[in-house]
Amino acid sequence: MKSDPALQLIVPPRMWAGFRQAMLASRFNQGEVIGFLFCTRHRVSPRKWRLLPKAWVVPTAECYEHQSMGGLALRQSFHWYLYKTYIERGLDVVHVHTHPHCNVPRFSAIDDYHEAEYARFLSRLPGRLRLVSGVFDERMTQGRFRAWPIKPDWQPGPAALSTKILEILDADCADGGREFACAARFDRQRAFGLGVQESLGAIAVGLVGCGGIGAVFAEQLARLGVRRWVLVDPDVLEETNLNRLPCATPQMAARRWPKVRYVKRLIKTAWPAGSQVTSLCLPIEDRQAQRRLAACDLIVVATDNHRSRMLAQELALRYLRPLVSLGSHLEMDEACGSRRMLCRVTIPPVDGGWCLCCGDVVDATLAALEVAPTALCSIVSAAGYLPGIAAPAVYWLNSCCASLGVFVIHGVISGLLDIESGLDWVVDFGCRKWLEVAHDEQPDCLYCSVDGLLASGDSSGGFEMRPMESMPAMASISTQSTSPLLAGAGENANEARHIGAGFAKEEQER
User: Fold this and answer.
1) Residue 306 burial (CB < 10 Å; 0-12/13-18/19+)?
2) Which CATH class is domain 203-357+394-436?
3) Average pLDDT in the 291-305 region?
């Protein structure tokens, strides 16, 4: 029997915590419980898909016809609500239920029968929707998933759940990372653990910007053990770049090497064999570049303009990819006695709450001006809103920023850093200070708020989502942030509000 391509369910950590908490809270007399996640579909490769949750629903006791240790059944009115609100709009369905006791659960024959019928029903709908089912123990600590086929003669295949940042689910990549992790070149890094080295060898990093910071970052992370890369930068080497690019030569600048070619050589120097480097001399606006970046496990932006950083943020939010922003600032004004030497590493939460735009890392006005017509830019520059010369830059400051970025990634994989709520560090060399910037969640942000515009990711169904309609007073519901620039947000249980008869709640996720 044939099987479908591998499916990976990507649930941000804060969203999974909210979903799990709602599942545990809905238990009644130790009965089984069920919950639903509704997802868009992102095709990573011909043999791999990611499901990206847009909303989750956990029915309360009033939604069940019966609920016991031996099984459960939902009201038809609740099924109809799910169909009209989510399924009819083309969202794939992930349903998770529990079995009693705390052993490793298995799907029962009853599960097999009813799930097969439900999968057959979904596959007949426009877009040929998918069903992924999960079964957990009563504490929601141990579970397994399977993906039901779109063709009736195919067998259900395994589906993987990821609830951690930079968690490697691809078995082929993990095996490759394990092979290279045992190399003698990493003997002095084994203090962090063999598993950390395996993860470094397995992750795919998308780098936007291969200039002064990006080049140093790529070389350091490659030597740390990362061997799978996607490089995106439309620029070429110039003589003015040579003061801050390691191993760059005047001959490269004279021949106008693409920067992605130059950084690829740096990586290949560290990895003469065994590396996979895709170099795209394209802007991030290009569809091919975006598709390649979205398939990576991590997106890093190290550019010198606001427009590219804003687009990288949009891409990361839409596809639930962790984003690392690297930047430096050098300002020397002898007349005023001002000396500012800063580097900044920012990682917004994967599932929203705050982002580069509402976190004052990216200026949307400057991002718009960077692509404005020349005549308009001239007027704005004359008025003093845009600088007339390129920003100053030095090797040591760029290197400090790149090294800090590499440490953060290594720290996350090693378990030394928790970035579920994001991270924003600024090192001020002039004042000799290391600052940790705190961000409040921004409910009005166009990009990462719940009330933003809707996002469909890269769904193969081609559907158009509409604003949420009023829901029946029958379930605990959490909607994902709905910006076209964002696909994801965490949960905020404090925003629960009672509806109807007073026994249902709606939880908006940020």
Assistant:
1) buried
2) alpha beta
3) 95
Q: Are 118 and 453 in contact (CB under 8 A)?
A: no
Report which secondary-structure segment, H or E, holds 296: none
**What tokens were used for 499?**
């509806």
Residue 302: partners with Cβ closer than 8 Å, 6 or more residues away: 207, 208, 209, 210, 211, 213, 214, 217, 325, 326, 327, 402, 405
Block residue for tokens 């705050």: 354
CA gap 293, 429 in Å, rounded:
33
Looking at residue 44, its amino acid is V
Burial 74-87 (b: 16+ CB within 10 A, else e): beeebeebbeebbb
What is the residue whose two structure tokens read 């999974």? Answer: 16
pTM: 0.84
* Mean of pLDDT values over 98-122: 88
Quick count: other Cβ atoms within 10 Å of Cβ 364?
A: 14
At 194, which amino acid appears? L
**Segment (H or E) for 341:** strand 338-347
| pLDDT tens by residue, 364-414 | 878 777 776 666 556 555 545 445 556 788 999 999 999 999 999 999 999
Task: Give 251: exposed, middle or buried? Use CB within 10 Å, 0-12, 13-18, 19+.
Answer: exposed
DSSP string over 131-175: EEEEEE-TTSSSEEEEE--SSTTSPPEEEEEE-STT----HHHHH
pLDDT of 509 above 50: no
The pLDDT, as a whole number, for residue 471 is 40
Q: Residue 496 above 90 pLDDT?
A: no
Q: Sketch the domain layout of the chain as residue ranges.
A: 6-163+450-508, 203-357+394-436
Contact status, residue 45 vs residue 295, Cβ threshold 8 Å: yes
Question: How far does CA 357 lie from the centroid of its chain?
Answer: 16
Contacts for 209 with CB less than 8 Å, ≥ 6 apart: 232, 233, 301, 302, 303, 304, 308
Please name which of 125, 113, 131 lies closest in space to residue 38, comparing C-alpha atoms: 131
344: phi then psi, degrees, rounded to nearest 5 = -140, 135
Percentage of the chain modeled with pLDDT above 90:
52
Write down the pLDDT at residue 286: 95
Q: What is the CATH number of domain 6-163+450-508?
A: 3.40.140.10
Of the ranges 100-114, 349-363, 413-427, which is most confident?
Answer: 413-427
Name the residue among 282, 305, 485, 492 with its Cα closest to residue 386: 305
List CB contacts of 266: < 8 A, sequence separation 6 or more: 215, 218, 219, 222, 246, 247
Quote the CA–CA distance of 468 and 151 in Å, as a whole number.
31
**Are 248 and 265 a contacting pair, CB within 8 Å?**
no
- pLDDT tens per residue, range 156-203: 888 999 999 988 766 556 555 566 777 788 888 888 888 899 999 999
